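M48 family metallopeptidase (Streptacidiphilus cavernicola), 491 aa
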Amino acid sequence: MRTSVRAVQALTLLAGFYVIALGFLAALVLMDVEILTHLDSGASAGALKLVLLSVVVAIPLVRGVFLVRRPRDEAPPGVTVAAERQPELWARVRGLAGQVGTRAPDEIRLIPAVNAAVSENPRFLGLVPGHRRMLIGVPLLIGLTEPQLDAVLAHELGHYSNKDTRLAGITVRGRQSLITVVQHARSSGRAITANLFAGYAKLYIRVSESVGRRQELSADLAAARIAGRDHAADALRRLPMLDAAYDFYLDRYASVGWEAGLLPLPEEFYGGFRSLLAAEGRQEELEKLRREPPAQETTPYDSHPPISERVAALEALPPDGRTVTGAERPALALLREHELLLSAVAAAALSPEAADKRPVPWDELARGAGRTALVNDCAVAADAAQAALGRPLTGLDDLLGAIDAGWLDAIAARLPQTDAAPRTAAHQAFRPHLLLALVDSGHARFAQSWDQVLHLEFADPVGTGPAVDAALDALVATPPDTGPCRSLVRR
């Protein structure tokens, strides 16, 4: 069925909701009028209860029909770029809009997300065009080539040419109205009203989202026509990889120093993501994500078809001669003075909770975050020692002294229960104490590495990982020997 027909169906269902709701309200009003008109003293209590019940039933309908406001056209966190400051990007977008056959956006805004989107704020049920905004995620500019970005932007502009954005506001408002009715009906125990409109809401969302999925496939065709079939398919394949890589970057790098009160410098924030994508040690896993994206569970309520389905539809198109050569310019080349611009986007994306964090260079962030992580990891053995000794530990020397005094098995027995033997568990629990002592004595340091999170380097050739393991092996041996640990720290 054509997308336009399904769109008409969705709008008809939306109109049907208002007809049913208003009809339901009218019936309640007529019933109340009839009851109050024929009210007599003998039936006053029961009649008034029925009128009160009808008012209670009407409340969620009134809220859903009359009190749901039009969605606000609020810009997400980011930076709006002016044409005079970024002429090449604007020229690219305007040229793509001309090829797609639509009016260019009035605003381009860079956002800190693996996403691109367009919106429009039309009036009079979408009949009068409104302000158009295009959102471009900075991670896309970093991780895509120019032809791949062309495919992404042409896809979004295709939503304009298909008039998808004109009806989006109406669809969202209708969905919110239905949800409001169901939520208020359920919260107040009005099961009949809730069940009636819950079923209608499911039908409406299924139809409207099926329209959305077909709109996505139609916009993919615009991307293939403008940027080339292979570039459009390759861009789609890269999106799940970039999404996973950016989430990993935010979790394991950008916020790794959060507990230590540290953040990366805004001017180095997106440079870090570029470094992660270019790291030699990450290429195998990134390529695997590109070739084998995580499986997506599908439901009739999905707004987008699965990436695999979209890629298959593009690859079913006939070849157009525009192949991926590997020599394409990175999309970031479209921006002038991109370091300053991306720094502004990073600063605009900070949450209020970040106000008390200190921005530092990556090496300082690695040192602070690494030491804080070790301190936290020391809590496992410290808690066990507290339970065994009845007092807190004051450091590695105190722990070693307790072991020399014969407390090893008592401490090991109070470690969290695992499948490992107590002394094997003690080996792991004591490790952060030894590493922290090496860091604080200058024999080891955390250094920034894009191949490994919180990479620990040893200053003394003897103080390598194997030497640390050997010292810990001796510490939990029978009998325990604290000498190698003391020697490492003294060295």
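Strands lie at 79-81, 107-111, 116-123, 128-137, 262-264, 358-360, 444-447, 455-458. The chain has three domains: 3-72+175-203, 79-168+207-348, 362-490. ok done for today
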